[in-house]
Amino acid sequence: MVTLDKDAVRQFGREITMFFPDLVIMLRQVVADPRVPQSAKVEAAAALAYLVSPRNRLTNMIPVVGQLDDVAIVAFAFRRLVVGAGEPILREHWRGSDRGFQVLIGASSALASPAGALRKAKV
Fold first, then answer.
1. Tens-digit pLDDT string for the chain (123 aa)
2. Could you tell me the CA-to-CA distances from 15 to 3, 34, 52, 77 in Å, in that order?
3. Which parts of the chain are coiled coil (predicted)?
């Protein structure tokens, strides 16, 4: 069973929501970029649609858990974009802070490896 530090999860959720507008802009631009494979575009578009959907706003009313689904969706979609498009293309479209981009890279890497998720949770 994986045990996560609740304070670390809350802090991570706050960081994610602080750069949410930058993330939406990046996802929108990636979907329009001809260099990005179609499969990665579909996943990015699905993540974007979920994040801005009214149904997602309802789940966000649940403290912590409501934000965790956003974190998981964003991290998964971003990981697929890193694999499909490459980090340089994503960085080109990122308008937020370097810290925000590194948080996305870290979250997507942690999702790619259960051992990585455990290491991140213990930090």
1. 555 677 776 776 676 667 778 888 888 898 899 999 998 888 888 887 877 777 666 666 676 666 677 777 777 888 888 888 899 999 999 998 888 888 888 878 876 665 544 444 444
2. 20, 30, 18, 17
3. none
Residue 85 belongs to some domain of the structure = yes
Dihedral sign computed on CA atoms, order 100, 105, 110, 115: negative
Please tell me the total count of domains within the chain: 1
Task: Report in angstroms the alpha-carbon separations of 68 from 18, 25, 47, 48.
Answer: 14, 21, 14, 16
- What is the pTM for the complete model shown? 0.64
Asked if residue 64 is part of any domain, the answer here is yes
Domain that residue 31 falls in: 6-122
Residue 1 belongs to a domain:
no
